[in-house]
Specification:
Structural class: alpha/beta
Number of helices: 13
Helix content: 25-40%
Radius of gyration: 22 Å
Largest sheet: 10 strands, mixed
Number of strands: 20
Shape: globular
Distance between the termini: 12 Å
Strand content: 15-25%
Amino acid sequence: MPALVLLGAQWGDEGKGKATDLLGGSVDYVVRYQGGNNAGHTVVVGDQKYALHLLPSGILSPGCVPVIGNGVVIDPAVLLSELSGLQDRGVDTSKLLISGNAHLITPYHQTIDKVTERFLGKRKIGTTGRGIGPAYADKINRVGIRVQDLFDESILQQKVDAALQDKNQILVKIFNRRAISTAQVVEEYLGYAEQIKGYVADTALVLNNALDEGKVVLMEGGQGTLLDVDHGTYPFVTSSNPTSGGACTGSGVGPTRITRVIGILKAYTTRVGSGPFPTELFDEDGERLRTVGHEFGVTTGRNRRCGWFDAVIARYASRVNGITDIFLTKLDVLSSLEEVPICVAYDVDGQRFDEMPPTQTGFHHSKPVYEMLPGWFEDISGCRTFEELPPNAQAYVRRLEELSGARISSIGVGPGRDQTIVLHDVLDEAVGR
């Protein structure tokens, strides 16, 4: 049976939570394969709204097993708090599985994240300050703490002590901060061991066995393609790989088992944090998109920067991810506009680029080349078939499909689980139903 990947095809915040939730009722496993609690998904079920930061969206689907893969970095305090919050609301969290190879975020990661960002001043990246980057840096430097280390006090003590030898020197001598106590970190983290132990498993083995048994596995990325550390707008990126390649390394499922890659595209574009953004709006149109679209970060609460749809980055995302299907979200936000611009290319110092400029400097200086499409004024939130959409809305969707390089399979016309138009049933096609 197939593995499917669902990921953001812009700078994150595209509505991945809703898309995963819609599929979650029909898949057996939903896997979060990278990132940490710097990502956020909002899922609306009936009249209930759930803000998820670390847990896979599939945790809201009763028949689904939610999995936190080895590619995720976990703040155990956040994890337990999120689990407790869902349990208090009657959500069954007992099926959750956590990879013992996933790395842990510690207090010293958070401290270093915050002081480093302040030290950068105008050159800051725009991190959430939650320690994600420093935790990934320790992972690559081979001084990280993994979930399995919680169950061996001696190993945990050794690893924390080794990590703090250098970090305390930096905190004290460079940033004029107080040294962090190894004993305090170890004591705190040993306290999480019993609370987490029941969830820990060899998740890569579980997932591959599930695929062998004919189960359907959906892998869910956090953030978005343009925030990928390799393929994004570096250095204004996250510290992991939200792209489809990251789904393999972050879950332990091989690439030959993936049959569909679903890219989530918002009907316009948003970004949180620093970095270039060619279609960004600084006028009343930008404020309208922010207000009508409720563009505030789920995890950070920060205002999202808003702009028109960028077909250049959509094509780029389709290419680097091998996107087979697009879930277009928030089409309803564009209602009541006379015209709807689409960025079809960039102008860089008089030279036209139909694809991403090859350098950071070129992208930074890119000016959008717009194509104008007529807008629509009808309320489309009640539409459930493509034919019910106003003709101009239909034309807009078809033009985005043509420009983006992959077919549009679903369209979101509101935040609710049922406010979706399905053009192609990706899951049925993937499993041959």
